[in-house]
């Protein structure tokens, strides 16, 4: 008999060799129908794999990421099986589960797989599903695995196998299809119910632009058709909200091949939006005691070798910049932190001076692969709302709470109501991979946990997910479509103060190392704006929108009055434009509704005589006529209430 410990701490005894599926059946027939994979001593496994010794077991369902991963990983194999039957001689690269669904990189040889071929592949997958083919795990030697795929002339699998250690290789078989894979997988293909292949793209083998471009087929599956229907509806809505589409419509940003791929150009309206965000955060930071700094876009290569960023990001960076001086090299900066360390180091500090809070909207550069570039969400040059706090170990908790306050302010101001947090701590056992004193780590980890408790923030704890230089807290936000984005991070760092030999004089008159906190509430301005566009569908809050008001004269006769109205509003710092096109007023209203401008002011003879404006509000229609000064006061009050509301909630 073996003892099985469940997540609630309860223990049951079973015969050695029992499978997770049999355990689920012993608990409840319903659970057995819903379970998709199992965690055995922290390792995610197939439900059919025997357990032969005492173990901690967790059963994963669709609601669990591990359950969905097994479901979508099996779906990738199902698609591969269908492809092998439809395209004889096809070769396979990798086919992982991803955050939403799965993909497989394939080499179809002389054939071409296009979007219009996807329904045919889906149909074959549905036919295979009906067979409920068992998915069987097999251990195999490296030599046998190599021979098997060499005989198939599948050079991609051969390359992958050649890098593996003997004794660690497994295959999974279903029907006539066999794939190199670690698993885990579903017990059989019958678990998969609703199938949708979503797109076809090109992908270089192993992400290397110098190697062959394969065909990447994306798909998603669900245990119920209703869930697939809801997903398809969400995707259609996501297309309407695509930040690239709305960004073009609202004239926020553009890209130019002459400038370079992945290097966004912010247009006047987009710049206005971005500056509003920056000014908002700067105002908050000033209240919290931050000092604004500016650092160069480049730095001596030795700076990034000292910080460790050259080792970490060197392969993904632009090539070093050489100068006329022999042997001198610079880099486009991959991170702002080393520059801030040098600013801190430029003057001596006492324990009374700490914390020192340095903030910068600093642009950094990474050479993302061209296939990974995507609008503003994946770019090669991006601006971080970076800040680095240099503090004593006993100040970590207080500073953490203050940074959390800033993040909460931003989420509230931008209507991100649905978010969660993850605390990443050290591995409970393997401490060797972390730097810094055990005492400082204990203080930092406890400070983060207590800060979350103090703020009433539910947070999951993940052991082994801490950075090697310190624990961290990440915020994951769900947008209006339920998609999850990581926005906002707070990290504790013992590494850079050590590498840069940062010091402060303590109360004991001895030299001590400060602890460094990295924080970026927005993350990057580019990615944050992309998420914000898709979350709001381009209907930004009044305080943030590039154009708050548009004045619509009903005919050319009233253009002069329209510009007079605009001038008076501009004097009150209201962002306004005039639509003086020779079009009917109904057309102007429709066109400006599409531009998502919050307020439309219609002016004609009556309004000109009475020094009034007829107000229409986005999505609410006619609001009646008011004096220009009254409208200006209403707008100003509305904006001030929005951007200043946070101050009443924070005790400085």
From TrEMBL:
Residues 242-553 form the Aminoacyl-transfer RNA synthetases class-II family profile domain. Residues 1-61 form the TGS domain. Keywords: Aminoacyl-tRNA synthetase, ATP-binding, Cytoplasm, Ligase, Metal-binding, Nucleotide-binding, Protein biosynthesis, RNA-binding, tRNA-binding, Zinc. InterPro entries: aa-tRNA-synt_IIb, aa-tRNA-synth_II, aa-tRNA-synth_II/BPL/LPL, Anticodon-bd, Anticodon-bd_dom_sf, Beta-grasp_dom_sf, TGS, TGS-like. Its cofactor is Zn(2+). The keyword RNA-binding applies. The keyword Aminoacyl-tRNA synthetase applies. This is Threonine--tRNA ligase.
């Amino acid at each position: 008999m073996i003892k099985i410990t469940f997540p609630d701490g309860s223990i049951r005894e079973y015969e050695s060799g029992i499978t997770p599926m049999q355990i689920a059946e012993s608990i409840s027939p319903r659970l057995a129908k819903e379970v998709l994979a199992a965690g055995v001593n922290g390792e995610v496994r197939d439900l059919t794999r025997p357990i032969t010794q005492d173990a901690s077991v967790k059963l994963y369902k669709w609601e669990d990421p591990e359950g969905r991963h097994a479901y979508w990983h099996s779906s990738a194999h199902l698609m591969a099986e269908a492809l092998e039957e439809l395209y004889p001689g096809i070769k396979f690269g990798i086919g992982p589960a991803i955050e939403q669904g799965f993909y497989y990189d394939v080499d179809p040889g002389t054939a071409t797989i296009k979007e219009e071929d996807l329904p045919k592949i889906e149909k074959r997958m549905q036919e295979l599903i009906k067979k409920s083919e068992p998915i069987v795990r097999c251990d195999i030697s490296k030599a046998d695995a190599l021979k098997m795929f060499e005989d198939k002339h599948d050079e991609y699998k051969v390359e992958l196998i050649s890098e593996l250690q003997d004794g660690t290789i497994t295959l999974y078989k279903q029907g006539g299809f066999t794939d190199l894979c670690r698993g885990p997988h579903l017990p059989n293909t019958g678990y998969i119910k609703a199938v949708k292949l979503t797109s076809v793209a090109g992908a270089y083998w192993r992400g290397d632009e110098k190697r062959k471009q394969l065909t990447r087929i994306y798909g998603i599956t669900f245990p119920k058709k209703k869930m697939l229907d809801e997903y398809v509806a969400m995707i259609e809505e996501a297309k309407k909200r695509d930040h690239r589409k709305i960004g073009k419509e609202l004239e926020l940003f553009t890209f130019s091949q002459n400038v370079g791929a992945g290097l966004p150009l912010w247009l006047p309206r987009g710049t206005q939006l971005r500056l509003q965000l920056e000014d908002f955060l700067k105002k908050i930071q000033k209240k919290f005691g931050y000092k604004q700094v500016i650092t160069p876009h480049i730095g001596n290569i030795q700076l990034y070798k000292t910080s460790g960023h050259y080792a970490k990001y060197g392969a993904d960076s632009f090539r070093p910049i050489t100068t006329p001086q022999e042997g001198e090299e610079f880099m486009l900066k991959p991170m702002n932190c080393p520059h801030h360390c040098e600013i801190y180091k430029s003057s001596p500090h006492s324990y009374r001076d700490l914390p020192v809070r340095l903030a910068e909207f600093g642009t950094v550069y990474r050479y993302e692969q061209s296939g990974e570039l995507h609008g503003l969400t994946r770019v090669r040059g991006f601006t971080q709302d970076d800040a680095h706090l240099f503090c004593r170990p006993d100040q970590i908790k207080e500073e953490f709470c203050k940074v959390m306050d800033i993040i909460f302010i931003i989420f509230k101001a931008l209507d991100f109501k649905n978010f969660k947090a993850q605390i990443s701590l050290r591995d409970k056992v393997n401490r060797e991979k972390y730097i810094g004193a055990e005492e400082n780590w204990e203080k930092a980890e406890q400070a983060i946990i207590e800060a979350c408790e103090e703020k009433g923030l539910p947070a999951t704890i993940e052991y082994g997910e801490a950075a090697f230089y310190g624990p961290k807290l990440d915020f994951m936000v769900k947008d209006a479509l339920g998609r999850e984005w990581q926005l906002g991070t707070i990290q504790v760092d013992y590494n850079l103060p050590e590498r840069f030999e940062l010091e402060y004089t303590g109360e004991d008159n001895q030299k001590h190392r400060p602890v460094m906190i990295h924080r970026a509430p927005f993350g990057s301005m580019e990615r944050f704006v992309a998420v914000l566009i898709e979350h709001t569908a381009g209907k930004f809050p009044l305080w943030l929108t590039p154009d708050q008001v548009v004045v619509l004269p009903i005919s050319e006769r009233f253009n002069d009055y329209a510009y007079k109205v605009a001038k008076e509003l501009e004097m009150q710092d209201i962002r306004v434009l005039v639509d003086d096109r020779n079009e009917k007023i109904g057309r102007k209203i429709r066109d400006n509704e599409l531009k998502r401008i919050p307020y439309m002011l219609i002016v004609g003879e009556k309004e000109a005589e009475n020094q009034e404006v007829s107000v229409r509000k986005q999505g609410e229609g006619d609001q009646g006529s008011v004096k220009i000064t009254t409208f200006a006061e209403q707008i100003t009050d509305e904006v001030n209430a929005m951007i200043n509301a946070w101050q009443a909630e924070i005790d400085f």
